[in-house]
Fold this sequence. Notes:
The chain is α+β, with helices and mostly antiparallel strands and about 150 residues long. Helix content is about 15%, strand content about 25%.
Amino acid sequence: MNHSNPAPAVSQNTPRPLWRAPHALTITRRKLKPGQAGTRKLLAAYGEKLVCVRYRYDAANKRRMKTVELVIEESPWQPRPAKIPPNEIMHLRIKYDEVALRNLVKAAGGKWNREKPAWELPYQQVLRLGLVERIVTDHKKPQTARGYHETA
């Protein structure tokens, strides 16, 4: 049986691929915006699709790479609403004559805030009681003629 080293499957003179997956030894030293020196030819080639040009350096292989970031597709997108922490205090509008609802909010731990003229309740309780549509963001003092509860 021959125990000598097997011949390499690929010749030593085979050209390396121009782009390698980034790894710990690859460093980005420069990131240029379209129109800056060093991007003009690429800007002429790619136009408004050009986002940026990066110069990356691979110390292990002694290579410098010029990479581009391009927009290849653009479509409408709606961001998710910010997630509200369950213990965040929400302010609720409850009319004075909504006695049963007011008692329900009190039983869930709700407190009347005179300065904001609104009921305060943690968001998780607001969700549990189904009162999301009653959350107030503007804290203008309501008129008593509208029937809002102003006292505890």
